Amino acid sequence: MKQIQILLFAICLTSLNIYSQEILDSTIIDRDSIYSKHEINVNLIPFITGFDLNKSSAMVQYKYHKRNGAYRISLYLTEKDEEYLNGYDHHLIKYQESGIDTMIISSRYQFVSSAGIINLGYEWHENIGQDWLMFFGLDILGGYGKKVKNEYQSSYAPDSLNILQFNAIKTEVSTSSDASFMRYGGNITAGFRHSINDRFGVSLSIMNNLYYEHMLKNNNNFGSALYFDPLRFFLTGTVMF
Predict the structure, then answer these.
(1) What's the total number of domains in the chain?
(2) Domain range for residue 141?
(3) What's the pTM?
(4) Would you say residue 24 lies in a domain?
(5) Measuring CA to CA, which residue among 56, 47, 106, 104 is closest to residue 79?
(6) How confident is the model at residue 146 (pLDDT cuts 50, 70, 90)?
């Protein structure tokens, strides 16, 4: 009789364990069903700066979240515009030292580099609060772009030996050259995202780029080179669905 009681007790424990496991399995939600999300980001800084792409690139990004990370693809439009004056002060000094009535030449150079870039990468993220998320990502990049060099040369013919007080006849000549290039490289990105609600958020990130530009044709004004482009800031609006 005692053996039958022990056997019945064992059967009850086994049945309870199986029933409890079934309840637990029915209540567990797959982590992927929670964290697998689609996310679209748009950089807001160009809208703030009037699309001054020297300050920040135009960017649209898509992320597919998977557990504690996300696969991502990004499209960028970048531009770098540099301008400087060369030669004017040098010729002034030369003129003053020689004391000869001569022509002063001032050269102004403008370099414009623009490119369309695609990034492919992965990011790791960690929740640091109910509405805050920290992320760190790596990408490879590739793209196509164009460089333009504009030179504006001004000639002054003074009619007085006093260089600081002369009436000059000014002549301007402008020249331009351009070349296309391919860009290859990678970047590291880190930042934070704040979720306003389940659908919308805002992110702040910093990107450091390292890339090589290969010129597609020989040009005396441009050459292939390796570049480091640090600390590009992005303030993005986020839509999650």
Answers:
(1) 1
(2) 31-240
(3) 0.71
(4) no
(5) 56
(6) very high
